[in-house]
Design brief:
By secondary structure, the chain is of the alpha+beta class. Helix content is about 25%, strand content about 20%.
């Protein structure tokens, strides 16, 4: 689907696909010129992070998967047109059937040349949110062919309930590869301007970056603007509650200064 065809009934078809599969891939959703404009500042941030990291060979599985920095929108106003994009937020809300969404946080995920796999995992393991209306927009800043490690999804896995206690790790990769093998898996390349949206409980992974180029990706996580905070179910959720929902308590609206409503 292109940006020109996101209004109903095309959006209704996308929402139906999302409800069934837990993911949709929107081709040509964003203007490549927008991505070209924001990429230099995100690249510079990733390069600065890279200077503080040990060599790739000295890192564990998670560290080899990507360079990760979060909430760029809070310190780099140049990324606001992308991270706070009304088009992205409106698409996320329509896919989930929400009146509006809040931002949870953004992430830059840069997989280095020679970088390893991103193990099978579910994002919502980390989120203390009392809703299933959560979604991640995965936004490449360049074409991502198979050699760079585009996302792979287990279709329909948002309903299976398997392994939600598992953090991203070698163990989550091992268990999911065995337990999700009866579901259809889908991986496809991305062109600049494509965006995929996947649910918080959808299982996904990516392969190693066997190319000679950096896989440059931004992500934005959204949730139902009316969601409440859940009682943290694990240490990761307790850490996230403090980091991304400061001042919010279980049972209260998930609505800190870091979580503006985007419409």
């Amino acid at each position: 689907m292109t940006a020109q065809t996101l209004e109903a009934p095309a959006t209704d078809r996308l929402a139906a696909d999302y409800a069934r599969d837990g993911v949709v891939h929107c081709t040509g959703l964003l203007d490549p010129a927008l991505l070209a404009a924001v990429r230099p500042v995100i690249d510079a941030d990733a390069e600065e992070l890279g200077r503080r990291l040990p060599p790739l060979a000295q890192r564990g599985t998670y560290g080899k998967a990507f360079r990760q920095s979060m909430n760029l929108w809070r310190r780099l106003p140049e990324v606001h047109p992308l991270v706070l994009s009304p088009l992205l937020a409106r698409t996320a809300a329509r896919l989930m059937g929400c009146r509006a969404v809040r931002i949870y946080h953004d992430q830059a995920l840069y997989k280095e040349p020679g970088g390893g796999i991103t193990p099978w995992h579910v994002d919502q393991h980390y989120w203390p949110l009392a809703t299933t209306r959560t979604i991640t927009a995965w936004i490449p800043l360049l074409d991502v062919p198979a050699a760079m490690g585009p996302l792979e999804f287990a279709l329909g896995s948002q309903r299976c309930g398997f392994g939600r206690e598992l953090a991203i790790s070698d163990e989550s990769e091992r268990q999911a590869a065995a337990s999700l093998r009866d579901l259809p898996w889908r991986a496809q390349p991305y062109r600049l301007g494509d965006v995929s949206f996947h649910a918080g409980w959808t299982w996904h992974r990516s392969g190693a970056n066997t190319s000679r180029a950096m896989r440059a990706v931004m992500t934005v996580i959204y949730y139902d603007a009316d969601a409440l905070v859940a009682e943290p179910a694990n240490t990761d959720q307790r850490n996230d509650l403090a980091a991304w929902l400061p001042g919010c308590l279980p049972g209260q609206p998930a609505a800190s200064v870091l979580n503006p409503v985007l419409e």
